[in-house]
């Protein structure tokens, strides 16, 4: 089983690392983290793609079975997950079990992703709980009925995913729900509030060295303040 975890990682925080570890341990699999060059649902990012990837490398340094996959950095245009999964499928072959990891807030929005139903033809989808966005069937029915309908017959225990190459859905509980978000982290850095305990120390030191996220404009919505990667 191969697990892939995409994100803006702008910047990476301890919540991201906890999710990657939890998926690795629950699915007994290597987890590749993929920084998105151009996240489709974000107007722009606040650090460029190379900087975000470098911080991600630092965040997982020394972590067994976690690695960074830079393939989305080399592709022009929006970093659509269906395109990334098609590339991975071509690389790994049709029979390799493959899973794409997302947070619960992303699951509630899955129906807005580019060619979203095709994602299940390419990979399993694994969602992890997130504070404020915890999902269950009732919440999906209320907020994302199309998603619930699509995953209805696909719902599997996590251990069963490795038995097929794609098409399943699993929900991973997290032993400890992590409150971190990149938006709040950027706000704290710009506001001069305490933030360093939300990231590994190596990441904090590099953010300071590169003088990232210090501009108070990062507190504004991304579209009015940011650089394109
Ligand atoms: N604390 C967390 N708990 C669970 N899932 C998370 C957490 N932080 C991020 N994720 C998930 O990780 C994926 C990548 O997240 P992303 O890089 O956008 O970070 P973020 O903290 O959500 O950023 P932002 O606040 O800028 O939206 C998404 O699917 C998101 O739902
Ligand atoms: O393919 C899409 O349309 C799509 C829409 C929204 C998000 N994604 C992917 O989901 C991951 C998390 O996105 P985000 O915006 O929460 O950082 C990241 O890998 C994005 O490329 C993908």
TrEMBL record:
Gene3D superfamilies reported in the protein's UniProt record: HUPs (3.40.50.620)
Domain of life from the UniProt record: Bacteria
InterPro entries: Cyt_trans-like (IPR004821), NadD/NMNAT (IPR005248), Rossmann-like_a/b/a_fold (IPR014729)
First-tier enzyme category under EC: transferase
Residue span, Cytidyltransferase-like domain: 4-188
Catalyzed chemical reaction(s): nicotinate beta-D-ribonucleotide + ATP + H(+) = deamido-NAD(+) + diphosphate
Biological pathway: Cofactor biosynthesis; NAD(+) biosynthesis; deamido-NAD(+) from nicotinate D-ribonucleotide: step 1/1
One protein family per Pfam: CTP_transf_like
Entry EC number(s): 2.7.7.18
GO molecular function ontology, one term from the record: ATP binding
GO biological process terms, semicolon-separated: NAD+ biosynthetic process
Role noted for this protein: Catalyzes the reversible adenylation of nicotinate mononucleotide (NaMN) to nicotinic acid adenine dinucleotide (NaAD).
Family the UniProt entry places it in: Belongs to the NadD family.
Protein name: Probable nicotinate-nucleotide adenylyltransferase
Species of provenance: Thermomonas brevis
